[in-house]
Structures are given as C-alpha cells and as structure tokens.
Amino acid sequence: MSDQTHIPAGHDLAPGEEEQHSVGERILGYVVGLVLALLLTATSFFIAGTDLVWQPSIPVALIVLAIAQMGVHLVFFLHITTGPDNTNNVLALAFGLLVVFLVVGGTVWIMSHLNGNMPPMDQIMRMRT
Amino acid sequence: MLGKLDWSAIPFDQPIPLVAGAVVLVAILGVLFWVVVKGHLPYLWDEWITSVDHKRIGVMYILLASVMLLRGGSDAIMMRIQQAVAYQSQGYLPPEHYNQIFSAHGTIMIFFVAMPFVIGLMNLVVPLQLGVRDVAFPTLNSVGFWLTATGALLVNISLVVGEFARTGWLAFPPLSGLSYSPGVGVDYYAWSLQISGVGTLVAGINLVTTVLKLRTKGMNYLRMPMFCWTTLASNLLIVAAFPILTATLAMLLLDRYLGFHFFTNEAGGNVMMFMNLIWAWGHPEVYILVLPAFGIFSEVVSTFSGKALFGYRSMVLATMAICVVSFMVWLHHFFTMGAGPDVNAIFGIASMIIAIPTGVKIYNWLFTMYGGRIRFATPMLWSVGFMVTFIIGGLTGVLVAVPPADFMLHNSMFLVAHFHNVIIGGVLFGAFAGFEYWFPKAFGFRLDERWGKAAFWFTFTGFYVTFMPLYIAGMLGMTRRLQHYDVAAWRPWMIVAAFGMAVLSIGVICQIMQLVVSIRNREALRDRTGDPWDGRSLEWATSSPPPVFNFAFHPDVRGEDAYWDMKTRAQQQSFDHDVPGYQDIEMPRNSPTGFICAFFASIMGFALIWHIWWMVILGGIGAFATFVVFAWRDHDEYVIPAEEVARIDRINLEERRSLVSMAGAV
Prior knowledge:
heterodimer, A: mainly alpha, disordered N terminus, B: mainly alpha, Cytochrome C Oxidase, Chain A, 20 helices, 67% helix, heme (chain B), Cyt_c_oxase-like_su1_dom (chain B), copper (chain B), respiratory chain (chain B)
C-alpha cells in the first residue's frame, strides 16, 4: 500500500515502515543495546549473591536494575524516542504504564486488605503457634 | 496413543447433546456436500477463506457471531424452560448437564457472539470511515478471525466429545481446579479461550494501528467519526486487558496440567487471586463490548436525525474517560470477598463515577435527536430501544455498585437481570443496529423493513418480559444458577420469564426471516448509489458493496461528518474528477496463512485437552511453520491497473449521476 504513505501529511510513519537509517547505524544501536542489557543482567545476578553491599538495599537495587533494563529495551529495541514522529508510541507506553500501575497497585492493595481481614489458612496456623 | 480420549467421551446416554450434535453434523455435512457438488469450493476458498479483505473478514466475523448466537440462544431457552419446570422437582435437565449449559451459555455469548460481532462490524466499517483501502495488517487480521473460529469450534466439539466446564463462565477455582473438576470440561473452556484470545489480541493490535496510522488526507483525530473513536478506545482496552486473561488462564492451566499451586487451597495457593485477576480483565471486557455499540448508536442517531452528533468533543472525552476508568472498578465484582470497607468504598465510588461519562453519552444522543427530522428506520428503532433499556440497566448497575446493597444482591437473579439488561440492551441492540445499518454497505441491498421492525418489537418486548421478572425473583432472594428450587414465590416469575423467552425467540425468527426475504427481494432492495440512508461519514461515499480497493481516490476530508460536508458543498460531482486520472492500486494478496494456522491450532487445542502429546507437537510445529512460510513470502501485493479502477469507479458514478439528475427532474 505504498500509495498511502503520503496521506497523514508530515507525521507518523506507516506501520512496518522503517525510518531512514543506514544499516551500520542500526546495527550499532542494537549492539549498544545488547551490551547494556547484558551488563544490567550480569549486575543483577552479581548484586543478588554478593555481600559487598548493605543487605536490605538488595531488593531496591534489583528493582532499579529491572526498571533500567526495561528502559534499555524500550529505547534500543523498541525505538521509543522523544522525536515528533513518536507521539503514538510514547502515548501507548504511558497508557500501558498507567494500566500496569492500576492493575498491579490495585491488586497489591486489594490482596493485602483481604489478607488482613481474612488471613489465608497457613497464616492463621502460624498465628496460633 | 489417544491420551484420555476413548469411546466413553461420547455421551451416548444423554440424548439432548447427542441429537443436537448429530443434527448439526448432518447440517454441516449437507452444506459441505452442496458446496462441493455445486463447485462453489474454489469460490469459497479464493474469495472468502483466504481473503485478507477487511470487509470480507468483517462479514465472516459477523456470520460466526450469528451462528454462535443461535447456539448460545438455544442454551438460554433450555435454561429458562428448566427453571420454569424445576419447582420441587428435578426438571428435565440433570444437574451436571444444566451446569454445563449455563457455563457454555455465558462463555459463548461473551466470547463467540458479542466479541466477534463487534470486531466484525469494526473490521467492516472502520477502514471505510477512515477513507483508507485496508487495515494495517491484512493477513494478521485473517489469522485473528480464524483463531477466533478455532475457539468456537472447540467449544462446539465439547458438546459431543467429552463435556464442557460446569464451573460458570469464568471458571473460578478451586471448583475449576483438578481436584473438583477432573474432567476435560475446564480444559475445553480454557484452551478455547486461550486460542481465541490470541485471535482477539491480534485483532485489537490491528485495529489500534489502523486508527492511529492509516487515515485519509485531512482526517484528524477530531474529524474521525464517533465509531472510529470508540473502536480505538475499545481496542486499546483489548490490547491492555486480554493479556491479563491469557496469563490468568495460563496459571490455571499450569495448576491443572503440571501440578502448580497458583490457585489451589493448599501449598500457598491463593484462590482469591484468580477472582482478582480474572475481573481485572473482566471489567474492561464489558467496556470493550459496549464502547463499539456506543459508537454505532452515535452514527445511527446522527444519521437518522439528519443532524451532526451533539457534543462531539464531549463524546470523545467521555469515551476516553470510560477507557481509563474501566480499569479502576474491577473489585465491584467481588465486594463480598472481604477486602474491607476502605477498598470496597473506593471501588464502589469509582463504579458510580463511570456512570457519569455514560450519562453524558445518553444526553448527547437525546440532544442529537432533539429538533432533528427523525426517521424511524430499523437501526433507529434499535437505538431508541437501547436508550430506554440501557438507562434501566445502568441504574440497577449503580444500585449494585453500592457495597451494602451488593452484599444483598450478589450472585442473585437481580444481578443476572442487571447484566443481561446492559449486555442485551447495550451490546446486542447495538450489534443489531449496526447490522441493519451497514448491511446495505456490505452486500449492496437493504434489509426488509417490515420484518426488521417486527424483529425489533418482538425482541424488545421479549427482553422486558424475560428479564424484568428476574429482577423481582432476585429481590425475593433467588440466587443464580439454580438447577431446581422449592420456593413457591419464585415460580410465577420463572414462568413469565420462560414466556418472555418465547417472545424473544420469535424476534430471532423474524430476524432470520428478514434475511431470507431480503435476499429473495434483493433486486427491489438494491442500493445503487452507495448511500441508502443519506449518511454522513465516508463509508457512504463509495459504492455498495465497495470495490476491493474501497476508494478510487483517497477522499479529502475538510471537517467532521466528511461525506455530509462533501454533499452539502455539492461536491458529489467531485467524485467524477476524471481529470486527475486514475492510478494503479496495490492491494495485499490473499493468503491461506490464517486458515492453515487455525487448522493446526485446532489440532493442537484438541490434543492439549485430551493429553495427546504427539498431536500437540504436530499442531504446534504446523502452526509455527505456517507463520515462518508466511514471513518468508516474496510477493505479497498485486496491482489493480488504472483502467480497471477507472472502469469500476465510473459504474458507480453513473448510478450517482443518474440519481442526481432524476432528483433534479423531480
């Protein structure tokens, strides 16, 4: 459907269309992304098993590393940028984040209240002992 | 070799499913035989089964939905008769059969009637309204349809091979766990939803991309017809919510197949988590269904009132508000679970808040009608019927959104009446309105108005006679899903409801008659201009049925109500701009990818249900190989030469010109 590319004048690219970049540039982007992703993964494994850092900080560090990992994936592999032709992607990402926040946050909130009011069997058992 | 499958799977001792199954099988074989003998098979294969044309796929979705509506409707009739006779007796359906029927009824009506119906209408209409030639991913579209059909097929196979779930349409554990449901029923349920869920997700991605990326010249977001907006909102919800369903059912399946403990009572499983997750999908789901219906009503009300939609921007805002808030209310399905007053209060308030944008929409439709020249054609009747019915359903919804009231009404017949009130009154009426409204566009002839109106009045009356008694029965304390009961006060209402079901069935028969009569009189009902209703949006700017490329030229949109705008500026003639010359048009080639993929998915699904592992591997490899072959294709487009485009376009222009000159002569 090459004749449709002219339609939405001056903004979004049609689906499946690549931006104009040379192959070299694109490969470089993926390689940088891969290296960063591997680094973050390796750091996560290292942090999880080490006693070099203050122990209670480990979960926080893992969460931070996980979020950084997502960022690397979004930027280098899914090509989310702040460019003007990327509004849709950024909005979609924002909507996705909102939904994840609502569902995950809501679930944690609901389940913790539920467990407070009606503890699961094993918790009741533990309370008795 | 065949896993759990043996002759005991066929219910030889139960006449009802066996006879029904046999009749359906004979009918299918008869149709197949007729198709093959008459030599229609190549036509069917080339023009429909392998088609990647969004209009054809839309029609097939609606056909699937209509067939499954008859199946789900039969279940409903059986349930109503059972409850009418099962007072202080066992009725005519044994409990295990009755339980399968209400589970199948809910599953079928939501996943294989309502979903394909609205997705079919969106597929058919949205690219036309946007003024483009196809959806963003045509072959993916076909895959989505055929995977949905696979799910429907598996549900129907369960009628004669094995059994269906006895757990209700959402299969709550621990009842749906292996210890309480050791049979294949829950597996049929889960795998058919998993496979059709992939299809739905694919359709959602496709339609979101289409609306966001493919619009004709000048079609800004704020010039899109309302139906495109609701399509966008609804498909955003599909993309966001369906993965939750897939993940939840995957966990249930892990529990059942590999001995995991996500939702078991023992070993740290949490049953309540299933309720929480499934409704985190389930509540957006009802808006996935009803938002497109709202879009259809917006189009219909505006067209048949001869006015632009009142408060277009507020409508857009209301749609997007519903889209977001629909993710903040899911707990109201399980207030009684015991999360406590804080949580219940917040979710109760959110549930009442979501009624506000819906109310905005109702007022907008009313004000669109106010001062308009209203034509009460069949689509408009469905729309007005919707407004009355949906307000009642909405108000009982606000009532059960109050947690203390919900504690009284939870899982009662009142609830059953409420959600049928909004789903039939909202989604089904919307689907029928859209069906009547866009049928001429899809097939080139109008539907018979007399039968259409009869269908409306019987369905409308039948709905009230069936479901208003259920509200009362609920108030009298009757709970849902009762196979038999001993309370004398409920009996009269059950009998009235069964009578109402009969009236509703007459409505369905009228609808079938309407189709038959219209097809026979198609020459008299022919729509020659492509604009039978004096329409306002771009789908009416092309011929009926539209050529495969939809538009010879991309329409140039200069405001809201694009086609109305062109007509009022007497630009009808601008369609005969022979001057700029026609150009070659590239269209995607037909592809059997969807059908073959779904064929292997069906095999895999069936094998997974019956634990036939070699067949699972076979189906999985087949489906994946199909995908790989498609990904490595060389030629995916063909060219329609400019002369052919010109020839097709001129025929339509002749018709339009002759109509204009006739109107001028009068």
